[in-house]
Amino acid sequence: MQKIINKITNRRIPTNVVAALASLFIIIGGFFISYNYMQSKKIKAYDYMSNVFYEETVIENKEDKKEKETEQTTQNETTVTQDENGYIGYLEIPKINLNKGFLAKDNKDNDVEKNIYVSPTSNYPDTDKGNLIIAAHSGTGWKAFFNDLYKLNTNDYAYVVYKEKRYVYKIDKIYKQQKTGKIAIYRDYDRKTLTLVTCTNNDSKTQTVYIAYLDKVEDI
């Protein structure tokens, strides 16, 4: 029996090896804990920063609006039809491979946490001189539908498919605004407009607004 014990004792791992392995495990464990912590902080910060805008109402800048208000026609909005997915239209931006449906403004799932979001202050594309305002998340995760929007430039095209027509918009200007809980939209009130809004790429303090004007309407 003593011989067996001696053999087991003799096979013990040297103290310096044990110390080295312990140090390695501590380093690896510390790395994963630190990485997970930083990721959670990053996601939490992203969600907070984007919600600063999305939880508020998008407004148009009244100060820059013409003194004579243009009355927006809403009768067409009562005849909106849905497809099998519940969408009333689609936003297509070929340059960034985006093709995403949008819901009616009063749909309970018209929510930036679930879809691209149509602002309640929007007008649908067939409204004369109207402005369709669509917002979505950028960043990480499945709901970051506008993550590649920063790749767009002026004169790029965006398309809205609505009521068997394709509305072709050309981006006219792009500007940033501080996150204050609301957005001022600077546009020509005599033109049909598409406004896209998302958080600015690699900038936690601002959001970017894309103003596009109707170029033509195509039958589909």
In brief:
The protein has two helices and eight strands.
Name the CATH homologous superfamily: Sortase
The overall strand count is: 8
Strand content: 25-35%
* Principal-axes shape call: elongated
Order of helices and strands: HHEEEEEEEE
| Total number of distinct structural domains | 1
- In whole angstroms, how far apart are the ends? 91 Å
| Poorly predicted residue ranges | 37-57, 61-76
Mean pLDDT: 78
CATH topology name? Sortase, Chain: A
Strand order across the largest sheet: 2-1-5-6-8-7-4-3
Mind telling me which CATH architecture this is?
Beta Barrel
Helix content: 10-25%
Number of helices: 2
Task: Provide an overview of this structure.
The protein is 22% helix and 26% strand. The protein has 220 residues and is an alpha+beta fold. It has one domain (49-219): Sortase, Chain: A, CATH 2.40.260. Strands 2-1-5-6-8-7-4-3 form an eight-stranded mixed beta sheet. A hairpin with a 4-residue loop joins strand 1 (89-93) and strand 2 (98-102).
Key phrases:
alpha+beta, eight-stranded mixed beta sheet, Sortase, Chain: A
